[in-house]
Design brief:
heterodimer; A: mainly beta; disordered N terminus; B: 244 residues; alpha/beta; Rossmann fold; globular
């Protein structure tokens, strides 16, 4: 899903945040891809506890915290929204 | 002919044929709470021939900020009985079947029955995953919707699209007493009803593979393209038992 693209200096990862994760962070954050290795690094930078994440997508697909993050990736992070 | 359906029959997507089609359809609505109230109301008013309502709970006073199928007089009554009464007053031309039961792994298949579409209006993720699995196995489209506070989502599950487990939802994420603004449940439930009617009519583009996210705080909608997870255990189990 991340393809074989190489990490480039100064390139950005787009992180789209949803629901309560937007509080104090905004709707979209752009992070320097060169400073990130895996999905969990993004949460650390944004100070989002892993246990609060229900959906973590990289380019529309479910991702584990160990998955690599590459420049140009679009991430989407959601808390649980399961009430009825 | 002037009747209750005149305004919707005038739509190109419905017409005489579409209205007749709706009358022949059966929808199972799982949960008759904050989402189930708008879903059941709009499906009944639209003339869906058979509504199967699955709900085991009784009406409590804390339900009344959002569950408009019930009134103060219904507190303490079974939701299934109170909802059936209200829906019969709204549209006496349709059949409302009630199943006063809590959906479990063991009874889900029987409760869902031969529905043409299932609308998931549950308040817990573990039961939502059961519904998704049974429906993928039986090839029944599911209209998922969820709310929390000022936020909500809608997603149609079926075909090559992802289910909730594909996206990362897990039964361990169940929360108790989720805060909900009634109007937000109204927005999401109304969207679920519209998606359900589109699927029944074969009209438009249902939200398969597109997660529609509502942010009531900023007053915005976002659409996120979402893909099936090839390693999804729910899909694997469902595919293994799929009806031919």
């Amino acid at each position: 899903m991340n393809g074989n693209r190489e990490k480039g200096m100064g390139d950005m990862v787009e992180v789209r945040l949803f629901a309560t994760f937007r509080e104090g962070r905004g709707k979209v954050c752009y992070l320097d891809a060169a400073k990130l290795v895996k999905a969990s690094d993004v949460l650390e930078v944004l100070r989002i506890p892993q246990e609060e994440v229900a959906i973590y997508l990289i380019n529309g697909r479910h991702s584990s915290m160990e998955d690599r993050v590459l420049d140009g990736d679009v991430l989407a992070v959601f808390p649980p929204v399961g009430g009825g | 002919m002037t009747d209750r359906y005149e305004r919707q029959r005038a739509l190109a997507q419905i017409g005489e044929e579409g209205q007749r089609r709706l009358a022949k359809k059966q929808v199972a609505v799982i949960g008759a709470g904050g989402l189930g109230s708008p879903v059941l109301t709009y499906l009944a008013q639209a003339g869906v021939g058979t509504l199967r309502l699955v709900e085991f709970d009784t009406v409590g006073i804390t339900n009344l900020n959002r569950q408009f199928l019930y009134t103060e007089k219904d507190v303490g009554r079974k939701k299934s009985a109170a909802a059936r009464e209200k829906l019969a007053l709204l549209n006496s031309e349709i059949l409302v079947e009630v199943r006063d039961a809590e959906l479990t792994k063991e009874n889900a298949e029987e409760l869902i029955g031969d529905a043409d579409v299932v609308v998931s209006c549950l308040d817990c993720i573990s039961a939502r995953l059961i519904v998704d699995e049974v429906c993928i196995r039986k090839k029944i489209p599911v209209v998922e919707g969820g709310v929390s506070g000022f936020f909500g989502f809608v997603l149609c599950v079926g075909g090559d699209g992802p289910c909730l487990e594909c996206l990362g939802y897990d039964a361990a994420m169940d929360q108790k007493e989720i805060p909900v603004l009634g109007a937000v449940a109204g927005v999401i439930g109304s969207l679920q009803a519209a998606e359900c009617l589109k699927i029944l009519l074969g009209a438009g583009e249902p939200l398969y593979g597109r997660l529609l996210q509502y942010d009531g705080i900023s007053g915005t909608f976002d659409e996120i393209e979402v893909k099936k997870n090839e390693a999804c255990r729910l899909h694997r189990r469902a595919e293994a038992g799929k009806e031919k």
